[in-house]
Amino acid sequence: MMDCLLAFIVLSYVTCIVNSASIESPPHNGTKLLVKVGNNFTRECTGTNMDLVLDDLYWTKDGVKVNAKQIIEPRFAATNRYSAKLVVLKFALRGSLKLTLFVTGATLYDDGVYRCVISTDTTQYIQSTVVIQEAVKSVKLYVDTGSNSLNGTLQPVGSSLKVTASTKLSVKCEVDGGHPKPSVRLILDDNGVKKELEKDKARTIDNTTSVGAYPLAYQTFYTVIHHENLAATEERNGNYISCLAYVEGLAEYEDKTQLDIEATVVPSNATDAPQLKNCSNDRNAYASENDGYHQFQCYVMSKSAVTITWTFNNKSTTIGANEEYKKHYKTTTDTNQDTEKYYRTQFSFLQLEKEDNDVYKLTATNSHGSKSHNFHLIYLGESSGSSPLGVCSIVLFLINMLMATLLSL
User: In whole angstroms, what is the distance from residue 244 CA to residue 186 CA?
Assistant: First the structure.
């Protein structure tokens, strides 16, 4: 009798082990489901070989029970978005159940880990992660000449930012929203060549809300990044500074400004303007056809780069420091490097003619100013002694040249 009873107990134990309930592993087990805010989603699982009276299937979210059979737990029921459906797939002494969890109008609160569990054996479960995606709400770029842009009160920028060259800029970007945590970058765009600016610091802010008496904790982001000491060089004039933010798989948002960089103005210093010294023949030079060759010469001193020009033909013709004009005029300029740049510039007449009778103006210009000197060539024609007629002609010619000089001043 005792042997029969012992055999029955052992047989019953083995039968219970063999017939213990289990959960089928669906394709989404261990996977990640991406759901955009406002969309619906479902999770389902199937329990086999279950005691339809004692066993129960239920879902949990982040370890909190969502339902008991088809009844939604109060904190989830308060959202009016959760429902469950339990279907008997196989009815027998031990049957199969299919449990489907429905979530409508997804919010950030629905982001988390979902597990389907058998009540009599909580070590058995399937799980999947639901990631709720929310686009960035707003992006705002701040640029200023101040410092400490993370905690400072920089001004928001418009479509362009006017600054002076050599200014150091502080840049800050504030991004509201976005889930999961958005990617945020500060970009310097140089005619299509984009370079990411190094982020000095970043911070995020977590938020919670509640429905009725039940706290619904979820994470949202308010992201702040900044960059200090961006040099506003003249080469960066026209460049764009932009802040880009996006959640993977969703639209990208941008706020940008174009740099309008004013060149640094070097204060003019009259003492640093070019100086003209030892100019030959002073103002007036007399020449005759028999001379055949004539030359004006002057020395130019300048502490910085200088441009030298000669102007004649009633100021309508200008030639540079080392040029030849119609094989009739020629300029040469030599440089002697010393404490300051020392130039010798010459204007040569290769063949004197009557038409050379003119005012020749030398001009030297640098970044601090300019200096000019006029040379007058008075052409006397062929040498023919000192007859009264010749003397009168010369006097009349000199009077005409003097009047022309006065009018040109």
Answer: 7
Quote the tokens at residue 296.
Answer: 């004006």
**Residue 382 amino acid letter:** E
In 3D, which of 278, 264, 274 has the Cα closest to residue 367? 274
- From first to last of its 409 residues, the chain has per-residue pLDDT tens of 445 434 333 333 333 334 577 887 666 667 889 999 999 999 999 988 888 777 888 999 988 999 988 899 988 998 899 999 999 887 777 888 899 999 999 998 899 999 999 888 777 888 999 999 999 999 998 887 765 444 455 667 777 888 888 788 888 888 888 888 888 888 988 877 888 887 765 566 655 554 455 556 677 788 888 888 888 888 888 889 999 999 988 989 998 888 888 876 555 566 788 888 888 765 566 766 666 677 888 888 888 888 888 888 766 777 876 777 766 677 777 765 555 677 888 888 777 777 778 888 888 888 888 888 888 888 776 654 444 434 444 554 555 555 555 544 5
Q: Please state, in angstroms and rounded to a whole number, the distance separating the CA atoms of residues 126 and 26.
A: 8
Per the document, the length of the chain is: 409
- Per the CB < 8 A criterion, the answer to whether 120 and 55 are in contact is yes
Q: Write out the two tokens for 360.
A: 């020749």
Q: What gap in Å lies between CA 353 and CA 295, rounded to an integer?
A: 14
Q: Tokens 């765009």 appear where?
A: 189
Instruction: Kindly give the pairing relationship between strand 67-68 and strand 160-164.
Output: unpaired
CA–CA dist 329, 320 (Å, integer): 11
How far is it, in rounded angstroms, from Cα 126 to Cα 59? 10
